[in-house]
Each structure stands twice: as structure tokens, then as C-alpha cells.
Design a protein that fits this description.
By secondary structure, the protein is of the alpha/beta class. The protein is built from nine helices and eleven strands. The strands form three sheets. It has a six-stranded mixed β-sheet with strand order 5-4-3-6-7-10, with helices on both faces. Strands 1-2-11 form a three-stranded antiparallel β-sheet. It has a two-stranded antiparallel ribbon with strand order 8-9. Helix 1 runs antiparallel to helix 2. The protein is elongated and about 85 Å long. The protein starts with a strand and ends with a helix. About 4% of the residues have low confidence.
Length: 337
């Protein structure tokens, strides 16, 4: 078993032991013995929860553990274009690839940046795989009503700042960027290039989604894609019917060149090995083939105990308050007379 305490162990353990001993001391000296024993158990479980115990799991590559991986993901309306696989939206393929890449890099620190009219950090760097999976699961396109056109490089500034912060905080780690999108520039101005200083990016890939023929895009009302034939309409001069989104592989190739990574066009059923090839190898410059152990977190078990005892404590406090309140009211009325 291993531990990953949320604060310094040499501070947490003495505080936890002191809290337990104080509760037991009051319990064996006072009349509310059960209540104080319950509080001692609560303090013990809270301490164990904050120690974050776990048991070893699968071997993790030392290279993966020394990776900061930034996913820059298109969330414009075009990701709902139905030209991925058998008429599925591009977003389905993007989500599948996000999870597949993360699965290939166990122990890596992952961050998710989404962009449409502006870029937003959906998830800061974390090695919590569950948190990343949850962030990917809720990833959705912009609300159609508010769509006003977007640039494929709008995330440049926030990506650069995040890479620089990661380099400053952990210079020993390699920084990898995966850009997922269709390259469709819908802003009125040309896309500004990614201006990333040399040495900030060690590898990664630009992954392109969509077809030259393009596909129709379902509307997003804010509650998911519109049911039935609710497609975005072409409101351009001379346009009529459903709007069509097409991949721009030339634009995606330019982005790959600016980031100094490879470009890969993605289709349903493609494996992910080509995208992650070399990420934990030459880009990492880590000697040897050492490995560490992942751990299955057990703190949530003690956390459930904390919730149960805290609920019991609250219930007992409310019960005592209800019993004392009438006595206080009668006492106050007696003094008033």
C-alpha cells in the first residue's frame, strides 16, 4: 500500500492523532461517551482520507509519467458535421481519440483546452485519469445561437502561456501537444500563426477530422444536438438549405508545421499508435526503461465513512437542539414574568 497525502504527512499525522486523542479523552471523562467516540472515529477517517491510500496497479512507463500532455480541441459548431464514419459527428471521433491517446500514456499529466470563439481551459494539468475522462465526456460544441465564426488558432495564446507555466513548474518534463480539429476558418480575418517559442513542445500531432465533401451540422440548443432534422442553415448570400462544413487539410498542415509536429487525417476505425509514436521515446530523452506503479485510490472508501459519521453528527446535533429549544423558551418566559 502507498500514500499520497494532500498535505505534508509530518503535519497531517500529528494533527489527526491529536484530534483522535482529544475526542477519546472527552469521551471517557464526560457523559456523552458515544458521541465523542463517534467524533474520534470521524477524525480518524478524515485523516486516512487525506492520506490518500492506494494499492499498486499496472506498471507505468517512466517516460509517460514525465509527460505534460496538452490537448487543444475544436468545439465549434463544425465538430457536429456528420461526416465521420457512418454519418456520425466529428466530435465522436475526437472524443474517442482523446481517450485512446490518454490510455496509451498512463501516468502522464493531461490538460484539455477547448476552443470556438475563444479558448477555455476545460481541465488543467492533472494525472487523474478519471477527471480527464469526465472532462472529455462532457465536451460539447458551442451553442449554435451564439456562434459568430471562429479562428483555428484562437487557442495560441492560452496554449503558449500554459506551456511556459508547465516548463517553469516542471522543467524536467517533456511537453506534448495534440491539436484536434477540422481546420475550417470561419472568422472574417485570416488565422494568425501559432507563435510558440522553440523548445516548449517536444512532440505530438495535429489530428484532422472530416471529409472534402463535408457534412451537415446538427444545431446545439445548449441541451445537446437538436432532435430530428434540426440542422444549421446556410445564411450566406446565395446560400440555401443546410450548411455544409468541410475539412481544410491545408490549414491543418500549416498548424502542424507551426507546432513542429506531424499531421494525421483521422477516420473511423483508425488506430492511435501513429499519433503517439515517438512521444515517450526520442522526445523524452529519458535513459533506461524504468517504471513505476500506478495505484488504485482507496481514499473514497474512508470518505464514505466520513460522510456517514458527519451526517450522524448533524442529525444528533439537530435532535439535541430541538430538545433544548423548548426548555430555553420556557426559561425565557419565566424570566419575563
Amino acid at each position: 500500500m502507498s500514500f499520497s497525502p494532500v498535505i505534508f504527512w509530518w503535519l497531517l499525522i500529528p494533527l489527526g492523532v491529536a484530534a483522535v486523542l482529544v475526542c477519546l479523552w472527552f469521551g471517557f471523562r464526560g457523559t456523552e461517551r458515544l458521541a465523542w467516540i463517534r467524533r474520534a472515529a470521524l477524525a480518524l477517517l478524515l485523516t486516512l482520507t487525506m492520506l490518500r491510500p492506494g494499492v499498486g496497479g499496472a506498471d507505468l512507463s517512466a517516460a509517460s509519467a514525465q509527460l505534460d500532455v496538452f490537448f487543444v480541441t475544436d468545439t465549434t459548431s463544425s465538430v457536429m458535421a456528420e461526416d465521420y464514419g457512418s454519418g456520425k459527428p466529428r466530435l465522436d471521433g475526437m472524443k474517442a481519440d482523446l481517450l485512446a491517446i490518454a490510455d496509451k500514456l498512463p501516468g502522464a499529466h493531461l490538460s484539455l483546452i477547448g476552443f470556438d470563439q475563444q479558448a477555455v481551459v476545460r481541465l488543467p494539468l492533472t494525472s487523474d485519469q478519471n477527471a480527464f475522462e469526465n472532462a472529455v465526456e462532457v465536451l460539447g460544441p458551442e451553442i449554435t445561437l451564439y456562434s459568430r465564426g471562429s479562428s483555428v488558432t484562437v487557442a495560441a495564446e492560452i496554449l503558449r502561456s500554459r506551456l511556459q507555466a508547465a516548463q517553469k513548474a516542471h522543467p524536467e518534463r517533456a511537453r506534448v501537444v495534440f491539436y484536434l480539429g477540422d481546420g475550417e476558418q470561419t472568422a472574417n480575418t485570416p488565422a494568425q500563426p501559432f507563435d510558440i517559442p522553440a523548445g516548449l513542445i517536444s512532440g505530438g500531432a495535429v489530428l484532422g477530422y472530416g471529409t472534402a465533401e463535408g457534412g451537415r451540422m446538427k444545431r446545439n440548443s445548449g441541451f445537446g444536438a437538436a432532435p430530428g432534422p434540426g440542422y444549421i442553415q446556410d445564411n450566406s448570400p446565395g446560400g440555401q438549405g443546410d450548411a455544409i462544413s468541410k475539412i481544410d487539410e491545408k490549414q491543418l498542415g500549416q498548424i502542424a508545421g507551426q507546432l513542429s509536429v506531424k499531421y494525421l487525417h483521422r477516420q473511423a476505425g483508425d488506430g492511435i499508435d501513429n499519433a503517439v509514436a515517438g512521444v515517450t521515446g526520442a522526445a523524452m530523452k529519458i535513459e533506461g526503461n524504468s517504471s513505476s506503479r500506478a495505484q488504485y485510490e482507496l481514499y473514497w472508501i474512508f470518505g464514505l465513512g466520513v460522510l456517514g459519521l458527519a451526517g450522524w453528527e448533524l442529525f444528533d446535533t439537530l435532535r439535541q437542539w430541538r430538545q433544548i429549544r423548548p426548555v430555553r423558551q420556557r426559561s425565557a418566559e419565566g424570566r419575563a414574568q
